[in-house]
Every structure is written in structure tokens, then in C-alpha cells.
Amino acid sequence: MYAPADPAAALPAVPRRQARWLVAGLATAAVLTAIRWPIDAAATAVVALTLASLAAGSGRAAAWTVLAVPAGGALAGWLGLSAVVGAGAAAAWSAARRAPHPTDRLDGVLALLAGAGCAGLALWVSSGLPSMVTMALVLGATAQALLPSAWRHDHPDLPTSWQVVRLPASHRPVARRALTLLRESAPMAPDVTTRRGLHEVTRWILALQQTDVALQAELDRLDPTALGQRLARPDPQSDDAFTRDRARAARSHVQRMAQHHDALCAELGRTRALVDHALAWLDDARTSLALARLRPGLAAPTDVDGVLLRLRAHAVEADAARRTARELGAAALTAG
Fold first, then answer.
1. Residues 35 and 114 in one domain
2. Are residues 277 and 182 in the same domain?
3. 208, 274 in Cβ contact below 8 A?
4. Which residues contact 162 (CB under 8 A, 6 or more apart)?
5. 43 dihedral zone (left: phi>0; alpha: psi -120 to 50; beta)
6. Closest by Cα among 57, 171, 163 to 108
7. Residue 44 belongs to some domain of the structure
8. In three state form, how does the secondary structure of 99-121 look?
9. I want to staple 141 with a disulfide (CB 3.0 to 4.6 A). Which of 43, 122, 294, 303 is the partner?
């Protein structure tokens, strides 16, 4: 089963995002330098920072990144500053992980200030050095601007619009409904713990939708009617012991496939029940938060820990079952 590993931890993911930032930015700068594209070093840095921000960001605002980073560079130039400083600030702002709650928008401000400061410091340190060395220092410094929002913002990442579109048409309404409920309820949540719970439940719903798609694909490959026909087929009457033995082995495999079909059906039913449960909780949470704003004495959404406990336990049980099956299969192969 697909599930986010430690979805409430943003800091452990920062080194990977910084690596993507550096690789994308340096590769872009190297390609532009190699083809001798007729732009100056500052414009090359702006393009490199745009690609770096796209590579390290969440992917949900690619269009904004493509527009914001060059606009930041142009605005800085208009104000008499280095275009690299403006582009670095805009790139860090675009890649920052921001939640919909108003107080969480401080993440974007912190990233903006960190990006501008790191880019300016890198330019000052690299004064007089070769352009590629300057580019590497600028990219390495601005990558550190991802840290402030990661320290503050520990909500799990949500899938991109492209990932939702890739789901089958029958599964997209549930995914879009979950995202809509999150967008409507998170701004009303009074504390970061509630907002984190809303994010994680939404992430689980979308992960379970991907699991649903995978299980349905496996079930489509196992036609129960065809399996029943193969099981109803009489064994060949032959005096050859080898033929009789292989026929019994084939029947055994078909019986196991029928058992697999039943197990997949049960797992699919559990997955859909979990999705219904989590989606109903999200809907209830949104209504509770809206009512709590009208009646301040009412409590925030309850039982979030219970919902998350069931979702996480289901994933742990599935992982344990897969590990056990792999170990038994390896043991059988070794014994054979």
C-alpha cells in the first residue's frame, strides 16, 4: 500500500529538495553556458533559479514559479538591486511549502527574506570569481532558504494537480472532494495540530485512492469466471504419471489464483471503507469548524487521532503482511 512515510516531518525532506535545487540549477547554467546563449550572467542566473525552484518545489504552482522568478529579477533591477537577489527571493518564495491558513503564510515571507539575503551574500562573497563558481555559490546559498519554512511548516505534502488528473476518471471526484474540503476547512482551523491532522487525513485519502487503482487493476487481470471454468475442467485421463502430476499442479495454481482474487476483493473493500470513513471525517471537520466560528464555545474537530490511528495501522498491517509473504517465499525457494 502506498502511504506517506512520516508525513508530518518536513525537515528530513529538505536535503533531497536542496539536492534537486542544486542539480537543476547547475545543469541549467551549464547548458546555457555551453550553447553560449546570448544573455548575460544575471539572466542566466534567473533562468537557473527558475528551474531550481521548479525542481525543489511541490509542483502545485509551476506556472506561478515560471512567472514569479523572472518578475522578481526584473523588479529588483528596476529598484536598482541585482536581478539575482530578486530572482533568489522569488525562487525561494515559490518553493516554500505554505499552508492555506493565514498564519502559515509567514512561511512565504520567511522564504522570501532568506532567499534575498542568501543570494546577496553569495554575490558579495563571489565577487571577482568565475561565473560558474558564482552560480554554484548562489544556488548553494539560496537552497538554504528552504529551511525556515521547513522548520515552521510540518504538514504533509499534497499531490500535484497532475497526479490527480492521472487517476482514473472514477477516482478523481473523491480526490478533488478531499482537496476541496481541506482548502475550505484549513483556514478555519484554530491551531497547527488541527491543520496538520486535516492535511494528513487528506494525504491518506489520496494515497488510498492510488491503492484502490492498483488493487482494481490486479482484480481486472483475474477473471473469476475464467478461473471457475478452469477449475471445473476435469483432469486429463492419462496413464502417464508426469501428465497427471502437472495437471494437479496446474489446478493447485488456479485454486491459489482464486484465493488471491478473494483476498484482493477483501482488501479493496477495506480500502474503500477507509476512504469513506476519512472523507466523512473531513466533511464533519469542515462543518464543525464552520459552526465553531459562529459559536466559539464549541470544540474543534474531534477524533482526529482515532482516524489517523486507523489509517496508519492499516498501512502497517499491510506492510507487515507483505514482508511476511516475501520471507515465506524466500524460505520456500531456499528449501526447494
1. yes
2. yes
3. yes
4. 59
5. alpha
6. 57
7. yes
8. CCCHHHHHHHHHHHHHHHHHHHH
9. 122
Whether pLDDT at 164 is above 50: yes
Residue in 37, 58, 2 with CA at minimum distance from that of residue 315: 2
Note whether 218 and 196 are same-domain residues.
yes
Q: Which candidate, 14, 6, 13, places its Cα nearest to that of 114? A: 14
pLDDT at position 303 is 61
pLDDT at 64: 67
pLDDT digits (tens, 9 = 90+) for 167-192: 888 888 998 898 888 888 877 777 77
DSSP string, 206-255: HHHHHHHHHHHHHHHHS-HHHHHHHHHSPPP--S-HHHHHHHHHHHHHHH
User: Do both 212 and 286 map to the same domain?
Assistant: yes
Nearest C-alpha neighbor of 107 from the set 67, 143, 153 = 153
Is 81 in the same domain as 188? no
Mark whether 96 and 198 lie in a shared domain.
no
For residues 7 and 154, give the distance between their C-alpha atoms in angstroms, rounded to a whole number: 8
The parent domain of residue 237 ranges over 161-335
Are the C-beta atoms of residues 274 and 311 closer than 8 Å to each other? yes
- Whether 141 and 111 map to the same domain: the answer is yes
Name the H helices within the chain: 14-34, 41-56, 62-78, 83-95, 106-125, 131-143, 146-152, 161-165, 172-185, 192-221, 224-232, 241-294, 304-335
240: left (phi over 0), alpha (psi -120 to 50) or beta: beta
Tally of domains within the chain: 2
Q: Show the cell assigned to 184.
A: 475550505
From 120, 152, 184, the end of a domain falls on 152
Nearest 5°: phi and psi at 99?
-95, 160
| Spatial separation of the C-alpha atoms in residues 206 and 158, rounded to whole Å | 8
276 and 165 in a single domain? The answer is: yes
Residue 5, domain member (yes or no): no
Does 80 have pLDDT greater than 60? yes
Domain end: 152, 180, 199, which one?
152
